[in-house]
């Protein structure tokens, strides 16, 4: 793909990839050393592809490979790379990230893994071929908000829901679980020759809306395998760049067609980072992201009698009162509690003070339980 731009269209050859005056200022110390600016479009085993003003170069990341997995070079990073002439060429540094999409790995060490850097929009692809898992969507949304990006939920394969009323209800369910987040429905079937964009217009122009959003910066495309991410990427690119494979008839799931994170320039403006399907979406220090996803619960909580109310059985709990009146769904509260507990455990692995607080809380609850049992036995005697 050609990343260059004509002089009349852009004053800087890297402008189509998001280069601006702020990046220029951040890079100036490295420019004084004779290094070249570039954006990482792919990372693979200690090597990365970097687009510079002179084209795409292959560079070694040995100088920026720390022990911290959150500080390794990632797709979307802006970097300082050696000028032409050296073999191999090295990435000498990456510029401070504006945003970073991070999840917890599935390893027992619970390390963080950075999926994409300097992202403006997180496009969460959800297939309507399966039953909606609202809790999983909320999990993705928490990571997206925590990253600093604006999330967008795209319901793919909506042709599998031919009844417009049913489709409308599904969209509404997701909107309820994603306050403040655009929810778009698109179709991915092209068996009859109808393009994805044409089908999308029949559903209210979801793909056109998404293209307009993506044109405003850098977007990362995330979701499970078989969610239709590659088909969606091809529709935005206007050509079949990403490999697409059919889902399995047995369980409706797909295989990984994207095995690395790739940054692609969109013809309508903006860039897209496509990612492999995610089997696990563990939180990683996403407390504020969880709060954003469940903003209505935190608003209700402001009316609780106690500032440290756990919303379980405390008197004067405004959250429980909202459930009783139907203003808040009990499923939302359960999901909120679950994500908060998970995030608290993750943070406690690296926060000594928080670990002490958790142990203290366990001891307090244990003492309450023992006291209750003693009182019960005393009453029996």
> In what range is the share of β-strand residues?
15-25%
What is the general shape? globular
Order of helices and strands: HEEEEEEEEHEHEHHEHEEHHHHH
| Number of discrete domains | 3
State the fourth-level CATH superfamily of the largest domain. Answer: P-loop containing nucleotide triphosphate hydrolases
The CATH C-level class name of the largest domain = Alpha Beta
N-to-C span? 82 Å
- The helical percent reads 25-40%
Total strands: 13
Shape-level CATH architecture of the largest domain: 3-Layer(aba) Sandwich
Strand order of the largest sheet: 10-9-8-11-13-12
Radius of gyration: 24 Å
* Low-confidence segments: 4-10, 190-194, 245-258
Query: Biggest β-sheet: count, sense, barrel?
Result: 6 strands, mixed
Determine the mean pLDDT. 81
In terms of structural class, how would the helical and strand content be classed? alpha/beta
Topology:
Blueprint: H1 21-31, E1 36-44, E2 47-52, E3 55-60, E4 78-81, E5 89-94, E6 100-104, E7 112-117, E8 121-127, H2 134-147, E9 150-156, H3 164-177, E10 183-185, H4 196-202, H5 206-214, E11 218-223, H6 229-237, E12 262-265, E13 271-274, H7 287-293, H8 295-301, H9 318-325, H10 330-348, H11 352-380
Would you mind describing this structure in some detail?
This protein is of the alpha/beta class and 381 residues long. It folds into three domains: 15-94, Beta Barrel (OB fold (Dihydrolipoamide Acetyltransferase, E2P)); 100-274, P-loop containing nucleotide triphosphate hydrolases (Rossmann fold); 287-380, Ribonucleotide Reductase Protein R1, domain 1 (Orthogonal Bundle), CATH 1.10.40. Helices cover 35% and strands 19% of the residues. The chain has eleven helices and 13 strands. It has helices at 21-31, 134-147, 164-177, 196-202, 206-214, 229-237, 287-293, 295-301, 318-325, 330-348, 352-380; strands spanning 36-44, 47-52, 55-60, 78-81, 89-94, 100-104, 112-117, 121-127, 150-156, 183-185, 218-223, 262-265, 271-274. The strands form three sheets. A six-stranded mixed sheet has the order 10-9-8-11-13-12, sandwiched between helices. Strands 1-2-3-5-4 form a five-stranded mixed beta barrel. A two-stranded antiparallel sheet has the order 6-7. Helix 2 crosses helix 7.
């Amino acid at each position: 793909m050609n990343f260059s731009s004509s002089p009349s269209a852009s004053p800087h050859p890297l402008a189509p990839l998001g280069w601006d005056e702020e990046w220029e200022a951040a890079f100036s110390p490295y420019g004084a050393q004779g290094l070249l600016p570039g954006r990482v479009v792919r990372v693979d085993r200690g090597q990365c592809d970097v687009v510079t003003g002179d084209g795409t170069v292959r560079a070694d990341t040995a100088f920026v490979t720390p022990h911290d997995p959150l500080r390794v070079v990632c797709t979307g990073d802006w970097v300082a790379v050696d000028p032409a002439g050296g073999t191999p060429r090295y990435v000498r540094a990456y510029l401070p990230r504006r945003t970073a999409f991070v999840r917890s790995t599935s390893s027992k060490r619970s390390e963080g893994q950075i999926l994409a850097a300097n992202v403006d929009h997180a496009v969460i692809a959800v297939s309507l071929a399966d039953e909606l898992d609202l809790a999983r969507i909320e999990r993705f949304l928490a990571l997206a908000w925590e990253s600093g990006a604006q999330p967008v939920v795209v319901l793919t394969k909506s042709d599998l829901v031919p009844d417009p009323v049913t489709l409308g209800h599904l969209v509404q369910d997701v909107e309820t679980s994603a306050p403040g987040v655009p929810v778009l429905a698109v179709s991915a079937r092209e068996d009859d020759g109808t393009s994805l964009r044409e089908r999308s217009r029949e559903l209210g122009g979801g793909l056109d809306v998404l293209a307009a959003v993506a044109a405003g910066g850098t977007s990362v495309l995330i979701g499970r395998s078989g969610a239709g991410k590659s088909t969606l990427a091809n529709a935005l690119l206007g050509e079949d760049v990403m490999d697409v494979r059919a889902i399995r008839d047995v369980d409706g799931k797909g295989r990984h067609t994207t095995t690395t994170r790739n940054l692609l320039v969109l013809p309508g403006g903006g860039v897209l980072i496509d990612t492999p399907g995610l089997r696990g979406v563990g939180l990683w220090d996403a407390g504020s992201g969880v709060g954003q996803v469940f903003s209505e619960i935190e608003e209700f909580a402001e009316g609780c009698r106690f500032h440290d109310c756990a919303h379980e059985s405390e008197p004067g709990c405004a959250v429980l009162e909202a459930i009783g009146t139907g203003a808040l769904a009990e499923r939302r509260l359960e999901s909120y509690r679950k994500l908060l507990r998970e995030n608290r455990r993750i943070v406690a692995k690296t926060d000594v003070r928080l670990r002490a607080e958790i142990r203290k809380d366990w001891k307090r609850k244990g003492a309450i339980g023992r006291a209750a049992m003693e009182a019960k036995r005393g009453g029996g005697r």
